[in-house]
Write a structure and sequence with these properties.
Layout: E1 2-11, E2 14-24, E3 29-33, H1 40-47, E4 55-60, E5 63-64, E6 73-76, H2 88-98, H3 103-116, H4 132-144, E7 150-154, H5 162-177, E8 181-185, H6 189-195, E9 198-203, E10 206-212, H7 213-219, E11 224-230, H8 233-240, E12 244-253, E13 256-263, H9 269-276, E14 281-287, H10 292-306
């Protein structure tokens, strides 16, 4: 759906983004990751035609991106800019008109989303009367009012309580099932793991990592396993001997533990189980994959040290 090729934008010789390339498929949730100042917001503004790139191309459904394509794109900016004196209804009509919607279509869509998000009584309220969380929810509704094919969300979970974070996640999953494409820029790595199909990581204006979340975690695993067991921790450690290293432990109570161990040499998961059987009562054992937060920190640190 969206193809970005060698996109570059400079400000006074300094590259905000430098030859960035990646693509989004129809019906996927794609994570745009990176530390502050990496170039994520610049990239999002270029896609939304707010600013122009210096070089490179963006294609939307095969065609070079033009102003007319914005009618099929929804955008939730990180800076929540709503006109505080306007009512929710008036604001919806203002933004809907910018996307080419008729008054009747705006009313139908607004009714649908206000009812779905259980906030129908907010319609006549001024933005300034809403709490921060309420305003966040309203702005999310505004970004999907015109049923866009591509939805771009910059830190969409910022300011939401856990209940509303789950509400937004559920809605994004439903949109994905309808064939919508969603680009999320966020620092919420837990949400990335839960809903993103693929991610790209940008650091110091360049792309440093791209792929499916599961594949990236698989690539960066480091031979750690977790064992949940009942028994004596000293017996557990003695059984590991020189073939395995105890990394961490969690006490569950009643002589029950979860221990994280790391393989040494050519030892395998099967070898680990063989050494423990008869020494402790194993309740569960599994391979530990790095979290996206660990992947993020490791990749950014490595890239920074190499420069």
């Amino acid at each position: 759906m969206l193809e970005i090729q060698e996109l570059t934008k400079r400000y006074q010789r300094k590259a905000a983004i430098d030859q960035i390339s990646f693509s989004l498929k129809k019906g996927e949730i794609f994570g745009l990751l990176g530390p502050n100042g990496a170039g994520k917001t610049t990239l999002i503004r270029i896609i939304n035609k707010i600013i122009d790139q210096d070089s490179g191309t963006i294609r939307f459904n095969g065609d070079l991106l033009q102003q007319k394509h914005l009618a099929n794109i929804g955008y939730l900016p990180e800076e929540r800019g709503l006109y505080k004196q306007m009512t929710v209804e008036a604001h919806a009509h203002f933004l809907g008109a910018l996307r080419g919607m008729s008054k009747s279509d705006i009313n139908i869509s607004l009714d649908y989303w206000l009812k779905k998000f259980d906030c129908i009584d907010w319609r006549k309220k001024r933005i300034q009367e809403l709490s921060k969380g309420m305003a966040q929810k309203v702005q999310f509704i505004f970004s999907i009012l015109h049923e866009p094919d591509l939805l771009i969300l910059d830190e969409p979970f910022s300011g939401f309580d856990p209940v509303n974070v789950e509400l937004i996640k559920k809605e994004l999953q439903e949109m994905k099932l309808k064939g919508k494409t969603i680009l999320i820029s966020t620092h919420n790595m837990k949400s990335v793991e839960e809903i993103c199909d693929r991610v790209v990581l940008i650091h110091q204006s360049k792309k440093v990592l791209e792929g499916r979340v599961s594949e990236i975690q698989e690539m960066q695993k480091n031979g750690e396993y977790a064992v949940k067991f009942r028994g004596n921790m000293i017996a557990f450690v003695n059984a590991l001997w020189t073939g395995f290293e105890l990394i961490d432990k969690e006490i569950l109570g009643d002589d029950r533990f979860i221990a994280r161990v790391k393989m040494r040499g050519e030892n395998s998961f099967e070898d680990l189980l063989k050494t423990l059987i008869g020494q402790v009562k194993i309740e569960a054992a599994w391979e530990v994959l790095p979290s996206m937060n660990e992947v993020f920190i490791s990749t950014v640190t490595t890239e920074s040290n190499e420069k």
